[in-house]
Amino acid sequence: MVWYFDWFSLLYVLVCEAFMKIFINEKDVTPVRYKDYSFKEMLGKKNGCLAGCRTGVLIYTQEEYRQNGVHDDQEGFFVLSGSGSAMVGDKEFYLEPGVCFIVPPGTNHSIKKDTSCSCIKLFFFHAAV
Length: 129
Fold this sequence. Notes:
By secondary structure, the chain is mainly β. The chain has a single domain, classed as Jelly Rolls, CATH 2.60.120.10. Helix content is 10%, strand content 40%. The chain contains one helix and nine strands; from the N terminus they run αβββββββββ. The strands form two sheets. It has a six-stranded antiparallel β-sheet, with no helix packed on it. Strands 6-5-8 form a three-stranded antiparallel β-sheet, with no helix packed on it. The chain is globular and about 55 Å long. The model has no long low-confidence stretch (mean pLDDT 90).
Protein backbone atom coordinates (compact mmCIF):
# COMPACT_ATOMS: atom_id res chain seq x y z
CA MET A 1 0.00 0.00 0.00
CA VAL A 2 1.33 3.42 -0.98
CA TRP A 3 0.90 6.22 1.49
CA TYR A 4 -0.28 9.45 -0.12
CA PHE A 5 -0.31 12.83 1.55
CA ASP A 6 -2.40 15.62 0.09
CA TRP A 7 -0.44 18.81 0.79
CA PHE A 8 -3.11 21.01 -0.79
CA SER A 9 -5.80 19.72 1.57
CA LEU A 10 -3.56 20.21 4.58
CA LEU A 11 -2.67 23.74 3.49
CA TYR A 12 -6.35 24.56 2.88
CA VAL A 13 -7.33 23.35 6.37
CA LEU A 14 -4.49 25.30 7.98
CA VAL A 15 -5.44 28.50 6.13
CA CYS A 16 -9.09 28.04 7.11
CA GLU A 17 -8.13 27.52 10.73
CA ALA A 18 -5.79 30.52 10.76
CA PHE A 19 -7.64 33.13 8.72
CA MET A 20 -11.23 32.09 8.02
CA LYS A 21 -14.10 31.67 10.39
CA ILE A 22 -15.55 28.29 9.40
CA PHE A 23 -18.56 28.71 11.69
CA ILE A 24 -20.92 31.57 12.45
CA ASN A 25 -23.97 32.39 14.57
CA GLU A 26 -26.96 34.03 12.88
CA LYS A 27 -27.14 36.70 15.58
CA ASP A 28 -23.68 37.90 14.50
CA VAL A 29 -24.67 38.44 10.84
CA THR A 30 -25.96 41.82 9.67
CA PRO A 31 -28.95 41.39 7.34
CA VAL A 32 -29.03 42.90 3.87
CA ARG A 33 -32.46 44.54 3.69
CA TYR A 34 -34.63 45.25 0.68
CA LYS A 35 -38.22 46.52 0.52
CA ASP A 36 -39.99 43.15 0.94
CA TYR A 37 -37.28 40.76 2.02
CA SER A 38 -33.92 40.47 3.72
CA PHE A 39 -31.16 37.93 3.73
CA LYS A 40 -28.20 36.95 5.87
CA GLU A 41 -25.34 35.16 4.16
CA MET A 42 -24.17 32.72 6.80
CA LEU A 43 -21.40 30.88 4.96
CA GLY A 44 -19.67 31.77 1.71
CA LYS A 45 -16.27 32.19 0.14
CA LYS A 46 -15.00 34.17 3.14
CA ASN A 47 -15.68 31.13 5.32
CA GLY A 48 -13.89 28.67 3.04
CA CYS A 49 -16.84 27.52 0.92
CA LEU A 50 -15.74 26.35 -2.53
CA ALA A 51 -17.27 26.14 -6.01
CA GLY A 52 -20.04 28.69 -5.35
CA CYS A 53 -21.33 27.01 -2.18
CA ARG A 54 -23.27 29.55 -0.07
CA THR A 55 -25.79 29.27 2.75
CA GLY A 56 -27.94 31.74 4.58
CA VAL A 57 -31.32 32.82 5.84
CA LEU A 58 -34.04 34.64 3.88
CA ILE A 59 -37.01 36.48 5.36
CA TYR A 60 -39.88 37.48 3.05
CA THR A 61 -42.64 39.92 4.05
CA GLN A 62 -44.21 40.26 0.59
CA GLU A 63 -47.62 38.80 -0.20
CA GLU A 64 -47.08 38.66 -3.98
CA TYR A 65 -44.41 37.09 -6.17
CA ARG A 66 -42.02 39.95 -6.94
CA GLN A 67 -38.43 38.77 -7.32
CA ASN A 68 -37.67 36.16 -9.93
CA GLY A 69 -34.43 34.47 -9.01
CA VAL A 70 -32.51 32.58 -11.69
CA HIS A 71 -29.06 31.12 -11.03
CA ASP A 72 -26.44 29.05 -12.86
CA ASP A 73 -26.25 26.75 -9.85
CA GLN A 74 -28.91 24.82 -7.96
CA GLU A 75 -30.52 26.33 -4.87
CA GLY A 76 -32.17 24.48 -2.03
CA PHE A 77 -34.54 25.85 0.60
CA PHE A 78 -35.84 24.72 4.00
CA VAL A 79 -38.75 26.58 5.66
CA LEU A 80 -37.90 27.53 9.25
CA SER A 81 -41.01 29.52 10.23
CA GLY A 82 -44.10 31.16 8.81
CA SER A 83 -46.05 30.00 5.78
CA GLY A 84 -46.51 30.97 2.17
CA SER A 85 -46.02 29.70 -1.37
CA ALA A 86 -43.22 29.16 -3.84
CA MET A 87 -43.31 29.32 -7.61
CA VAL A 88 -40.58 27.21 -9.21
CA GLY A 89 -40.82 27.33 -12.98
CA ASP A 90 -44.54 26.77 -13.62
CA LYS A 91 -45.12 24.80 -10.38
CA GLU A 92 -46.64 26.48 -7.32
CA PHE A 93 -46.74 24.81 -3.91
CA TYR A 94 -47.48 25.60 -0.27
CA LEU A 95 -44.70 26.34 2.22
CA GLU A 96 -44.78 25.69 5.96
CA PRO A 97 -42.12 24.81 8.55
CA GLY A 98 -40.38 21.58 7.61
CA VAL A 99 -40.89 21.87 3.84
CA CYS A 100 -37.69 21.50 1.83
CA PHE A 101 -37.35 22.05 -1.92
CA ILE A 102 -34.75 22.38 -4.66
CA VAL A 103 -34.62 24.80 -7.60
CA PRO A 104 -32.75 23.41 -10.62
CA PRO A 105 -30.14 25.57 -12.37
CA GLY A 106 -31.58 28.19 -14.72
CA THR A 107 -35.11 27.95 -13.27
CA ASN A 108 -37.18 31.02 -12.35
CA HIS A 109 -38.30 30.97 -8.73
CA SER A 110 -40.07 33.28 -6.31
CA ILE A 111 -41.46 33.11 -2.76
CA LYS A 112 -44.27 34.92 -0.95
CA LYS A 113 -45.72 34.78 2.56
CA ASP A 114 -49.31 34.10 3.59
CA THR A 115 -51.45 37.02 4.73
CA SER A 116 -51.94 35.19 8.05
CA CYS A 117 -48.31 35.63 9.19
CA SER A 118 -45.84 38.50 9.43
CA CYS A 119 -43.10 36.76 7.43
CA ILE A 120 -41.75 33.48 6.11
CA LYS A 121 -38.19 32.53 7.08
CA LEU A 122 -36.15 30.05 5.04
CA PHE A 123 -32.67 28.56 5.11
CA PHE A 124 -31.09 28.51 1.63
CA PHE A 125 -28.03 26.92 0.07
CA HIS A 126 -26.39 27.29 -3.31
CA ALA A 127 -24.39 24.38 -4.69
CA ALA A 128 -22.45 24.04 -7.93
CA VAL A 129 -23.61 21.55 -10.53
